[in-house]
Known about the structure:
By secondary structure, the chain is of the alpha+beta class. It has two domains: 1-51, no CATH class; 55-221, no CATH class. The chain contains four helices and nine strands, in the order ααβββββαβαβββ. It has a five-stranded antiparallel sheet with strand order 5-4-6-7-8, covered by helices on one side. Strand 4 and strand 5 (114-120) form a beta hairpin. Helix 3 packs parallel to helix 4. It binds 2-acetamido-2-deoxy-beta-D-glucopyranose. 2-acetamido-2-deoxy-beta-D-glucopyranose is lined by residues 108, 110-111, 115, 138, 140-141. 2-acetamido-2-deoxy-beta-D-glucopyranose binds at residues 108, 110-111, 115, 138, 140-141.
Amino acid sequence: MRVTGMIRYVALFITLLGTWFIVQTYFDHRWKAISLRSWLGVTNKPRSEQLPRHKCGNQKSCPQNHFAFKIISGAANVVGPSICFDDMALMSSVKNNIGRGLNIALVNGTSGQLLKADTFDMYSGDISRLDTFLQEIRHGTIVLTASYDDAATKMNDKVRAYFMELGSSHVSKLGFRDNWVFLGAKGLKNKSPFEEHIKNDKNTNKYDGWPEQLEMEGCAPRKMD
Length: 225
Ligand SMILES: *[C@@H]1O[C@H](CO)[C@@H](O)[C@H](O)[C@H]1NC(C)=O
């Protein structure tokens, strides 16, 4: 009786030992790694790895052969606009290359390289400078535009026609202190899908005298046509 009992205990002990050994070998390592860290709230991954940062700080990453972009219009006559393309801040208050009116960056649609960035006063400025700037845009160039304060007072039909040629659908309706963000390209066969326009309307304006700021982000195909 006692011997049988002893054997049972020994057998049980060996079984438990074996189970512990198997569990230890196969699971313990991983289990410990997961549970201990989550209990302690400790992670050894840097923050940037947990929340992937996309180009231009966008919500989504872009497929191959696309350029990430983000265009933000000005807010009233206080906060300047910004233009990001392929993770490069092309125009911004920090870069000190923006101004009231229209802010336009030209990018090579194949290489993504910045060609020109300029700002045009549309309230009291010289419209012929903008006319020349738009006229000289070469085929395959991506054009990024952001309004600030007023982008329409000096706008004329010739300049509107240039923007329409770049794929704009809204430029014809652009009025005093409207906000407008637009990405187009020279040589587009269709209208650009990348355009937002908000009217200056005292019933809907967010600010006293100006509509709310526009922010548009997306993925522009390389060599748009
Ligand atoms: C754009 O870049 C491509 C490739 O680098 C080059 O061949 C082309 O001439 C450039 N076009 C313009 C308009 O700069």
